[in-house]
Design goal:
This protein has helices at about 1-10, 25-35, 55, 75-85, 100-110, 180-190, 190-195, 205-225, 230-250, and strands at about 15-20, 40-45, 65, 90, 95-100, 115-125, 130-140, 160-170. It is α/β, with parallel strands linked by helices and about 260 residues long.
């Protein structure tokens, strides 16, 4: 009987996991939104901290870990998932925070035994007036995750019942990656993305993919969002990513290893 109650308690426990890098301007807003909602907060810092992020974070949790600097969050996520003691994981970034309605109803979501993961409504970009929403798998059962390799931009996938929720995970970065200044920073990360990506196809495959995906992403985002700048930046990023994978294949460089 005690074991059953312990298992039920664990199944209703939410572990919030964050991978951050010098986020002193954003992290308080995020942590304030989850502090009375989740059962534990786990923070992974991508390399040494050079601002007040850790000082702020220590007011909310003592479960803070430092990892070698990479410049992307996903390679650190497998480690963050291992550190989570709850069966339910809330994956959240420093520039995100729970909406008031999500804070009120998140406990109700995890009580539904028929659902293994929730794709929350998420503002893809909000610097052009009207929000443009997509759905992001951000609340899920740890044991129902499919294998997560830690490749940059890799989404979490569920081996079970996944459900879309209309509850909003707010997303308000300091600056949009779809401004020229913001995109310049994002484009530099394409090199990191390329290093951690699979390279199991011939080099010519990635050369052709860089060209095809440039036009493919441009058309896709134009049709979806009707925004020329967004479509162009997305197309350039995917061209750069696959071009750099092509170069790495020519140099015979394997996929970078994810730290355990």
């Amino acid at each position: 009987m005690k074991t059953k109650k312990k298992d039920e308690s664990r199944n209703n426990k939410i572990s919030a996991v964050l991978v951050v890098y010098n986020e002193e301007k954003l992290i308080k807003r995020c942590l304030d939104s989850i502090k009375n909602v989740v059962d534990e907060i786990i923070i992974i810092h991508d390399g040494p901290c050079t601002d007040n992020t850790i000082k702020i974070a220590k007011k909310y949790t003592n479960k803070i870990f430092f990892r070698p600097h990479i410049g992307e969050a996903e390679p650190h996520r497998p480690f963050s998932f291992k550190k989570a003691s709850g069966n339910w994981i809330l994956q959240i970034d420093a520039d995100e925070f729970l909406s008031h309605e999500l804070k009120r109803k998140i406990r109700k979501l995890i009580k539904d035994r028929e659902v293994d993961g929730y794709a929350l409504k998420w503002d893809f970009y909000n610097h052009y007036g009207t929000p443009k929403y997509e759905y992001k798998m951000a609340l899920f059962k740890k044991e129902k995750m499919k294998k997560f390799e830690g490749i940059p931009h890799e989404p979490v996938r569920i081996n079970g019942v996944a459900k879309k929720s209309e509850l909003i995970l707010e997303h308000k970065p300091l600056r949009s990656p779809f401004t020229f200044k913001g995109f310049e920073s994002k484009l530099k990360r394409a090199n990191i993305h390329a290093k951690y990506s699979k390279k199991d196809k011939p080099a010519v495959f990635y050369l052709l993919k860089s060209i095809i995906w440039f036009f493919g992403y441009f058309v896709y985002y134009m049709l979806k969002f009707f925004n020329l700048r967004l479509a162009f930046f997305s197309a350039i990023y995917n061209f750069s990513l696959n071009w750099q994978i092509f170069i790495l294949k020519i140099k015979n460089e394997p996929k970078a290893k994810i730290g355990k």
